[in-house]
Design a protein that fits this description.
Layout lengths: L1 H9 L4 H15 L4 H14 L9 H11 L3 H17 L7 H12 L1
Helix pairs in contact: 4-5, 4-6, 5-6
Amino acid sequence: MVRYRRAAAAGGTSSSAARKLASLSFVLSNRQPCFETASYISHHLSLAGRPDQIITEDALNLIHTTSRGYPRAVNNLALQSLVASFAAGKNLVDEAATRSAVSARID
């Protein structure tokens, strides 16, 4: 990556380097900020019939940090967090349930 930045700064970008830079900027633009991850999850929960807040702020921050804001990863971690919370008999998805979901996804 540094090589492409140096080439771009020197004005000697090849078409391959330009394509890779464009690809990287597209990937980075698909990521969501933390507040958008929280509203994204809240929106999907309201579509499913749960307009109330059932995921704690700590759990939302962990989901966002672990998923790096990618929507597919957010969906997978939120779902696994809901399942882990249900399995533990909890009414709220807390950080502990999310941590168990993260460890289950990584293993």
